[in-house]
Amino acid sequence: MSGKKALIVGTGLGGLATALRLSRRGYDVEMVEMYKQAGGRLNQLRSEGFTFDMAPTFFSMSYHFDEFVRDAGIEMPFSFVKIDPLYNVNFRGSDRRFIIYRDLEKLTRQFEDIEPGFRERMERFLDASGKLFFDIEKGVLSKNFRSLPDFILQMTKLPLKHLPLVLRSVWGELSRHFTSYEVRVIFSLVSFFLGATPFDTPAVYTILSYTEMVHDGYHNVEGGMYRIVEGLLREADRAGIKIHYNVMITDFDASGKRNRAFIDASGKRWEADIFVVNADAAMFRGRVFRRSGFSDERLDRMQWTLAPFTMYLGVKGRVENIHHHNYFLGERDYEQYSRGIFRNRVSLEKPYYYVNANAIFNPESAPEGCENLFILVPVPDLRFKPDWSDREQIADAVIKDLSQRTGHNIEANLLTRVVLDPVAWQNMFGLYRGSGLGLGHKMTQVGGFRPSNRDERYSNVWYTGASTVPGTGLPMVMISSKLTVQRIDDEIDSI
Ligand SMILES: Cc1cc2nc3c(=O)[nH]c(=O)nc-3n(C[C@H](O)[C@H](O)[C@H](O)COP(=O)(O)OP(=O)(O)OC[C@H]3O[C@@H](n4cnc5c(N)ncnc54)[C@H](O)[C@@H]3O)c2cc1C
């Protein structure tokens, strides 16, 4: 048993999972968090009797949670169910709702009138993305890279047949398989899960289509997504892990190759034997360790993901024509919209957005007979749109659009309305320029190119979470905590 003290900066899913894994290994774990409560982006907001999940609404690759509970020596602290259908999609100007079933028979019926031979085309598409998924999961996602050459060597071991998927975009790959505009758009939405668009996302990420349609699918959490955090907090409490909220780390004190303490905004020192940073791994190196390679100037030149513009609406009455997960897209301007949104070159008067109606699955999230709506509009980050004084107008436009498309007068029935723009997201959780998913996932920003999970200078500092390897999303964060703790296990004797 270690007996060493570990300080973790941040109580996002990555921080909490790492805390429990380290505690199982005998570390005395303490955590500091800048927000008022745990969870990071996996958070919760309450207003007027409604309980909203703040950001994630489902997750994939559930077996990474199974693996985590085994490693941490705990029981699964929350319940989840696989969903089918996955989501609904509506295009502006049309009453038609495409229901995305995992069941290929039912899915085919949704599309056969607009995409002749849909079933065979889909089978071919999923066959290719499935083969790639298993190679990537084994050869890249589950690996720690000690250096860039180590990563490049690993990449050369991937079968050559996948090379075109590195060079092509998600949109290019879908266009090879499907002819219908709607089919191409709908199955390219996975790029937005990476905070990017199908035109700038490498086709390797069509593996996400395989995970949603064939592999482990998507899961809803019973009682809401925050049950994950509540469950982990119960386990942390049992393990004697101490958590301090409203503490923002802004400085450090190091000597030679070792970090001695982190220092918070009030000047208080937080000492430990080892440190794990769950805050953004690039920004922390720049702003706390003040490394020139991660200065704001340098980071601004990198590719960051779209920012969230989120709305939390408590609505009287049940909204018809809506599923638990819904995408409301524009007319036939997808490419122009996608290419313009990053750089603030499209109007947010008529945005593309996602709606989660949580009370359909979790009735306790809203008062009886009411709807709990979470709306996510992917928008430009603060580099491209620093001024959000038009926040309420954008929210009004989305509410009007949704009212028209569902036939429910949402504005007249609003019981509560909370709007968070990228400035709010930046300030709550330290998201760089308000970017929702942090650094983008282009080929030169993943694997060995991503900020490493071991600090370059201080041998007793590691990083964990979506901002380091392997990348964003709840299952990737669970893998990240595993990889970080593997490194700590391997490297602790040499600190
Ligand atoms: C709008 C939105 C929707 C999403 N939807 C989904 C989804 O449906 N499914 C899915 O799988 N994923 C989704 N994601 C992605 C998912 O939320 C993230 O990948 C994941 O929660 C990141 O966890 P993390 O632990 O790496 O980081 P975070 O959750 O960001 O945690 C980092 C923590 O560190 C704290 N911190 C930062 N800096 C400091 C500091 N200096 N001092 C002290 N504390 C600090 C922060 O406050 C935060 O609590 C979504 C993300 C967003 C923004």
The distinct ligands, each listed once, are:
flavin-adenine dinucleotide
Total helical segments: 18
Which strand order does the major sheet show? 7-6-15-16-17-14-18
CATH superfamily of the domain at 5-42 and 225-302 and 438-494: FAD/NAD(P)-binding domain
Strand percent estimate: 15-25%
Share of helical residues: 25-40%
| Rg measurement, Å | 22 Å
CATH class descriptor of the domain at 5-42 and 225-302 and 438-494: Alpha Beta
Q: What form results from the Cα inertia axes?
A: globular
CATH topology of the domain at 5-42 and 225-302 and 438-494: FAD/NAD(P)-binding domain
Please give a structural write-up.
The chain has 495 residues and is an alpha/beta fold. Among the domains are: 5-42 and 225-302 and 438-494, FAD/NAD(P)-binding domain, CATH 3.50.50; 108-211, Guanine Nucleotide Dissociation Inhibitor, domain 1 (Orthogonal Bundle), CATH 1.10.405. The protein has helices at residues 13-24, 63-72, 104-111, 118-141, 148-156, 163-167, 170-177, 181-188, 190-193, 207-213, 226-238, 281-287, 296-300, 334-341, 358-361, 391-406, 422-429, 474-491; strands spanning 5-9, 28-32, 44-47, 50-53, 80-82, 87-91, 97-100, 219-221, 242-244, 249-255, 258-264, 269-271, 274-277, 307-316, 325-329, 353-357, 370-379, 414-420, 461-463. Helix 1 (13-24) packs parallel to helix 11, helix 1 packs parallel to helix 18 and helix 7 packs across helix 8 (181-188). The two termini are 17 Å apart. The relative contact order is 0.18. The chain binds flavin-adenine dinucleotide (FAD). Flavin-adenine dinucleotide (FAD) binds next to helix 1, strand 14 and helix 18.
